[in-house]
Structure formats: structure tokens, C-alpha cells
Specification:
The protein is mainly alpha-helical. It has 3 domains: about 90 residues, Glucose permease domain IIB (Gyrase A, domain 2, 2-Layer Sandwich); about 160 residues, no CATH class; about 170 residues, no CATH class. Helices cover about 65% and strands about 5% of the residues. The strands form 3 sheets. Strands 1-2-4-3 form a 4-stranded antiparallel β-sheet. A two-stranded antiparallel sheet has the order 5-6. Strands 7-8 form a two-stranded antiparallel sheet. The radius of gyration is 26 Å and the shape is globular. GO terms for molecular function: kinase activity; protein-N(PI)-phosphohistidine-sugar phosphotransferase activity; protein-phosphocysteine-N-acetylmuramate phosphotransferase system transporter activity. It is found in: Cell membrane. It is a multi-pass membrane protein.
Length: about 500
């Protein structure tokens, strides 16, 4: 999209989320515009989905998330922020109707894409009600700590991969150290960013959270002895930084309540850094270090000894985990694995769930030739699905239909088993960053058996996921009643009759 189109997309979205005065916060991740709203009842989801460029809408308890896709979201977000700023003092306007929609438009008989979207919205609301538990809300907040780091993880991961490729090929050797420094610099200080974001998310002072977490990566910790051993810089990784910043938030809140106002500017930041810093050095780094090592060892052994079975389970259950909100617990695990070994072995397997979803959607397209509205939804959502953005297909197609969601999981399980099997056979690989999936994951792949083998196995897993998801959905994704209900052809329009133009009798079969 051109800059004018980016601004046009932002301008179309703004009134449909309640206007500038309803916007509390604006942020974005790799694919979604994330809006904190004062009043969620002002959101017109149906009209949002009809905006050109919008691939889907995901609303949870914390934010309204508008799926725009990789690249587009980073360009639409600044335009949206500018429009919000410009419109703060402007008089409110009524949301414009979605392009191409009229009150008098008639729907064809049978189940249309709009009706399936309504089912998807109801399922999302039910999921929100189930997910509003303290534990799942906590996981969501932990995910919010890591989501802003994804662009840097992606960029640095690709740069590090490029440096490794040049080193293996022996090309431009003078450039390899520079690329290594650029690609690794962020990862060496990721604990500081985790601490900063943790304090920000949980209501503390961000810079104090970053200051406490910086202890984890400070080279001087090598001189500190805890539990009879000297500490290592980076010991505990992001888990240690997360725990240290959470403790700093608790200490800061305690100080704000009890320290006299005259001494607050001196004592509160000092105690907020000192107390959690000491606890981090003499406890958290050791405990988090052991936990991080255990996570890495478990992941490696899981795929080395039971790769096919483990891949089948992980690939098959990932979509249900997303529905339950439990997938957010994997984000710190992915980040820990990347920090330890340079890549997460779990993400390529979990990405197979998206492949099963794409295959299932293609089968739905083929099985419902007389449902133009649903086929149009699939056509518009498939490119995003191939790049790993699965929400439009999940909430607009497979989940509302029911059975195709299950058969999509079967496709994900088959693709996961394929990738897991090759991990078990020695072709171990993973992703150097989190966030992308599908075809977008290719530039981030890294393994122990060379790039050619790594790419071939991942591509093979995608193919298996596509084909299995398609076959399972085509043959087992519909009952006869579902096909009758969903595949009803639109009735031809009957012109009005006049006394001079009598109607014809219907032909007998």
C-alpha cells in the first residue's frame, strides 16, 4: 500500500473503534494494531472486517486487536496515531458505513460468510468468558511483556542468519564480525528490555525495572558468589529478568505507600533497585538459571527421543491452546530457547498448525462451490494464512463450522509429526525469532544440518500439513446436513409480473 492507502485504512478504522476520544493506547506487533479502548461497546466489528486491508479482528480483555498483516501494520499504525492526535479536539462523527454494505442488501438463502462471522464472534465472546481467569489474565500480561520485542528479535535473527550464511560460504569475511555484532547485540541485553517492559506492564517505573534486570547481564556478576559458586553473566536469562522486575514492582509499590513524600524521590528508587538486586544476585539468578537450563534440556530430549510423537501432539494441540489462551505461556519459553541456543526448536513444529488450517480452508472452498460469500472470505484470507496470520481463517471459517477446525488440527498434527521425526533423526533446527509463521518463517530458520536440509524439512512439513488438512476436511469435515445447509445456491431473482407478462409454469423434473 502507498502512504495514502495507509492513511485511508487508518481513517476508515478510527470511527469504527469509537473515534479519537475512545483511544486509550496505540501499539502494534508483527501483524496486529493493538488498541486500548475506553469503551469497547463502541467498536463495530462487522464494519471493521469490511474495511479494505483489515484481515480480521481479535478482541480480548486487554485490547482490541485489528489484524493488518506483516509490513502493513507498521505503516498503518503511525498514520492511525497521527489521526488520533489530530482528532482529539475535533467534534465526534458517526462511523461511516462499511463500503459496499447497504441496509437493504439481501442475503442469499443458506449460511453465508456474514453468518459464520457472527458465529465466530459468539465463539470469541464465549472464549473471552472462559479465559477471564486470574491465571490466563496473568499469562496475557506476560505475553504483553514480550510482544513489543518481536520486531527486534526478527530483525536481529535475520541479520545473524545472514552473517552465518556468509561465514559458511566464505563470502565477504570482513563483514561477518560486523553482522554478528549487530545480530547479537540485542540478545545480549534482552534482559534489560524484558525488565523495562515488565515494570511498565505491571504498573511500576519502567526504567527501574530495566535497572534491576540489568544486573542479570552485567559482566561484574562473575565476581559474586552464591550457593558456593560464582555467577555467570546472563545466568537466568529472561526468566530471571522477568522475576527481578516483578519483584521490583512490588517493592516500589510498597515504598510509594510507606515512604514519606519528602524522602520518596531518594528512598523509593534506591530501595526498588537495591532490594530486588540483592535478591536477584543471591537467589533468582541461580533458580532461574536452573529453570532455563531445564527447559532447554527438556526440549532437546523431547524431540531427540520422541520427535514424531512430540511433534504430532504439539502440532495438533496448538490451535486448541490458542483458543484457551494457554499459548501465551510459550512466549517466555521460546525466548529462553533462543537466548540459550540461538533458536527455538518448538516454533517450526507449532507453525504446522497454521498449515493444517490453510489446507482445511482450501477443502472448504472446494466442497462449497455454491456459497460465494464464504468462498470470497477464504480467497481474501488465504494469502495471510500462508504467511502465518491465521485469525481470519480460524474465526471466519473453520471454528464457526466446527468440524473443519478439528480436521485442521489433524493437518497440524501430521505436519508436526513430520518435522518432529526429522528432529529425532538428527536434522535439528528452529527459528531465530518468534512471531512469524508459515512461509514468513523461512528467513529465520537455523539448524545443525545446514540450510538446505533445514529448509527442505520445514517445507516438507508445510506440504504435509496442507495436504493432510485438505484431505481430512474434504472427506470428514462435513455431514450431509452441513453440506445441504452451507451449499445452498442463491435463488435466482424473479422479475415482477404484470397482467401482460404471465409467469411460466415450472418445468417438471
Amino acid at each position: 500500500m502507498t502512504p495514502d492507502k495507509h492513511r485511508a485504512t487508518a481513517a476508515a478504522i478510527l470511527p469504527l473503534v469509537g473515534g479519537p476520544d475512545n483511544i486509550g493506547s496505540v501499539a502494534h506487533c508483527m501483524t496486529r494494531l493493538r488498541l486500548g479502548l475506553h469503551d469497547r461497546s463502541l467498536v463495530d466489528e462487522a464494519a471493521l472486517r469490511a474495511v479494505p486491508g483489515v484481515l480480521g479482528v481479535v478482541e480480548d480483555d486487554a485490547t482490541c486487536q485489528i489484524v493488518l498483516g506483516p509490513g502493513a501494520v507498521a505503516r498503518v499504525t503511525p498514520a492511525f496515531e497521527a489521526l488520533v492526535t489530530e482528532g482529539r479536539t475535533a467534534p465526534p462523527t458517526d462511523p461511516a458505513p462499511a463500503e459496499g454494505r447497504t441496509a437493504a442488501s439481501a442475503e442469499p438463502p443458506g449460511v453465508t460468510a456474514d453468518e459464520l462471522a457472527a458465529r465466530g464472534a459468539a465463539l470469541r465472546q464465549a472464549r473471552k468468558a472462559r479465559n477471564a481467569t486470574p491465571f490466563k489474565l496473568f499469562l496475557r500480561r506476560i505475553a504483553n511483556v514480550f510482544v513489543p520485542l518481536i520486531p527486534a528479535l526478527i530483525g536481529c535473527g535475520i541479520i545473524a542468519g545472514l552473517g552465518g550464511l556468509l561465514a559458511n560460504l566464505g563470502w565477504v569475511p570482513a563483514l561477518v564480525p560486523a553482522l554478528a555484532a549487530i545480530g547479537s547485540g540485542f540478545m545480549s541485553l534482552i534482559a534489560v528490555f524484558v525488565g523495562h517492559n515488565t515494570a511498565k506492564e505491571f504498573g511500576g517505573t519502567p526504567v527501574l525495572g530495566g535497572a534491576v534486570a540489568a544486573v542479570v547481564v552485567f559482566p561484574g556478576v562473575a565476581k559474586v558468589e552464591a550457593f558456593g559458586q560464582h555467577l555467570s553473566p546472563g545466568q537466568g536469562g529472561v526468566l530471571g529478568a522477568l522475576a527481578a522486575a516483578l519483584l521490583a514492582v512490588r517493592v516500589e509499590r510498597w515504598c510509594r505507600r510507606r515512604v514519606p513524600q519528602a524522602l520518596d524521590v531518594l528512598l523509593t528508587p534506591t530501595l526498588t533497585v537495591l532490594v530486588p538486586g540483592l535478591v536477584t544476585l543471591y537467589g533468582l539468578m541461580t533458580v532461574a538459571g536452573a529453570l532455563s537450563t531445564g527447559i532447554g534440556t527438556f526440549a532437546d530430549r523431547l524431540l531427540a527421543t520422541g520427535g514424531a510423537v512430540a511433534g504430532l501432539v504439539l502440532g495438533g494441540l496448538f490451535l486448541p491452546l490458542v483458543m484457551l489462551g494457554l499459548h501465551q505461556a510459550l512466549i517466555p519459553i521460546h525466548t529462553t530457547l533462543i537466548q540459550q541456543s540461538g533458536y527455538t526448536v518448538l516454533l517450526p513444529i507449532l507453525a504446522m498448525a497454521g498449515a493444517g488450517q490453510v489446507g482445511a480452508a482450501l477443502a472448504v472452498y472446494c466442497r462449497l462451490p455454491h456459497n460465494p460469500s464464504l468462498r470470497a472470505t477464504i480467497r481474501s484470507a488465504l494469502p495471510a494464512g500462508l504467511l502465518g496470520v491465521g485469525e481470519p481463517l480460524i474465526y471466519g471459517v473453520s471454528l464457526p463450522l466446527g468440524r473443519p477446525f478439528v480436521t485442521a488440527c489433524v493437518g497440524g498434527a501430521a505436519g508436526g509429526a513430520f518435522v518432529g521425526l526429522f528432529n529425532q533423526l538428527g536434522v535439528a533446527f528452529g527459528s531465530t525469532a518468534i512471531g512469524p509463521s508459515g512461509w514468513a518463517l523461512f528467513p529465520l530458520l537455523k539448524g545443525t544440518s545446514g540450510m538446505a536440509a533445514t529448509v527442505a524439512v520445514y517445507a516438507g512439513g508445510l506440504a504435509v500439513g496442507y495436504l493432510t488438512g485438505f484431505a481430512a476436511t474434504y472427506f470428514f469435515g462435513f455431514t450431509r446436513r452441513m453440506l445441504t445447509e452451507l451449499n445452498a445456491a442463491p435463488a435466482p431473482a424473479t422479475p415482477p409480473t404484470t397482467p401482460d407478462q404471465p409467469t411460466e409454469a415450472p418445468a417438471l423434473a
